[in-house]
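Long-time lurker, first post. I've been practising inverse folding by hand and with some scripts of my own, and I keep getting stuck on stretches where the structure tokens seem ambiguous. Below is the full token string for one chain I'm working on. Before anyone asks, I'm not after the true native sequence, just a reasonable design that respects the backbone. If someone could post their per-position residues I'd love to compare against what I wrote down in my notebook.
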């Protein structure tokens, strides 16, 4: 059986592709967007149309949702399967989400709850996963010199979001507008595992900001008033909070412990951290950092309201010890205190970092248990098997 995999170079794609093939599916790849990031929706339709004319696919698949794929699949009456791995995914506001060909899987339950009624029975919740076999091989093949190079007390890999801060691009806000939004973000920062941003933004405030937001950069904000509050909360305030909270937590840790920071962002504000400004290669370096660091930090961005980011599964899948902020879906997938550890404030983060650096046996036991849970329950094979079960049952 053949499927078409539309690719744009998401870090999840190689593992999902490998999984499909291990399950006996013949995968045809459409890779234009990997080399041509400026590919238009029309060009996507043309390239996929040509393939749909030549093949009889079981379904078309992509990481994240592409409206153009939904439209062309709907014409050909071919099932289109997508799996969102990001929040926000603004393409989900497209009318194409309602097409009957869709089988949309969303990793964050709050995202699923928000969009499920736009296509009842065709939108599903499916958490993310990792590839323990891939990480096992990288770690097993690494030399002692390589392992030592990536050893650390505390590590963080990721963006500081200052280069992705949409909120900073809003120019000309009044003192009243900025004051209200600052208060909303301050209130959000006091809450763990709960996202209140959109609930606290009135439509009138979102509408009043429209003249200040670029139509070229954010067309949806102007084309779909119904999406404005969601976009303001998740794209704009969400990115500002990511900057604020990541700097807050990482600054606190680096002032008390040795922190290795792997990022492509401007980290000049974190003067106490040991900076690795080139970031870390996902396939060759990241697994060694996770495995050789005594503590790996995860700081989930606020737009991921309930779900678990890919980073969490990857840390555990590499046998690393994870110290993460609490998320509503976490206890459904891991047992806090036994398989991962959590924090809910800068003070608790410091307390637990210090405690686990001093209690090696307890730290190692949690890392081992987290790895075993991941290998048993949170691999791509497990997730894709469940995805295909749902898809087959719905055709």
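-- Answer (accepted) --
I ran through it position by position. Result:
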């Amino acid at each position: 059986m053949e499927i078409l995999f539309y690719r744009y170079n998401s870090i999840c794609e190689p593992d999902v592709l490998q999984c499909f093939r291990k399950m006996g599916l013949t995968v045809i790849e459409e890779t234009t967007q990997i080399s041509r990031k400026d590919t238009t929706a029309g060009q996507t339709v043309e390239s996929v149309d040509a393939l749909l004319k030549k093949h009889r696919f079981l379904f078309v698949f992509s990481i994240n949702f592409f409206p153009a794929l939904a439209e062309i699949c709907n014409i050909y009456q071919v099932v289109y399967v997508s799996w969102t791995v990001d929040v926000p995914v603004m393409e989900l506001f497209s009318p194409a989400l309602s097409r009957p060909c869709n089988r949309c899987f969303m990793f964050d339950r709050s995202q699923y709850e928000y969009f499920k009624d736009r296509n009842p029975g065709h939108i599903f919740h499916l958490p993310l996963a990792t590839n323990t076999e891939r990480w096992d091989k990288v770690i097993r093949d690494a030399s002692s010199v390589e392992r030592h190079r990536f050893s650390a007390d505390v590590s963080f890999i990721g963006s500081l979001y200052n280069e992705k801060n949409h909120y900073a691009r809003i120019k000309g806000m009044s003192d009243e507008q900025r004051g209200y939004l600052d208060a909303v973000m301050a209130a959000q920062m006091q809450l763990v595992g709960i996202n209140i941003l959109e609930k606290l933004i009135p439509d009138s405030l979102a509408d009043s900001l429209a003249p200040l937001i670029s139509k070229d950069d954010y067309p949806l904000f102007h084309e779909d008033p119904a999406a404005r509050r969601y976009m303001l909360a998740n794209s704009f305030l969400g990115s500002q909070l990511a900057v604020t909270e990541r700097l807050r937590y990482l600054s606190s840790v680096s002032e008390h412990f040795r922190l290795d920071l792997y990022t492509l962002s401007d980290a000049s504000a974190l003067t106490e951290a040991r900076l690795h400004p080139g970031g870390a290669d996902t396939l060759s370096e990241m697994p060694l950092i996770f495995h050789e660091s005594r503590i790996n930090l995860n700081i989930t961005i606020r737009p991921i309201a309930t779900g678990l980011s890919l980073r969490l599964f990857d840390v555990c899948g590499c046998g690393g010890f994870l110290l993460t902020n609490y998320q509503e879906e976490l206890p459904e997938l891991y047992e806090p205190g036994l398989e991962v550890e959590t924090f809910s404030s800068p003070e608790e983060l410091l307390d637990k970092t210090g405690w686990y650096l001093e209690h090696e046996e307890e730290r190692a036991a949690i890392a081992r248990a987290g790895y075993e849970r991941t290998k048993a329950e949170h691999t791509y094979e497990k997730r894709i098997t469940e995805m295909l079960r749902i898809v087959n049952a719905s055709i």
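A couple of notes from the structure itself: The mean pLDDT is 96. The chain has three domains: 2-129+382-394, 132-163+242-378, 166-241. Happy to go over any region you disagree with.
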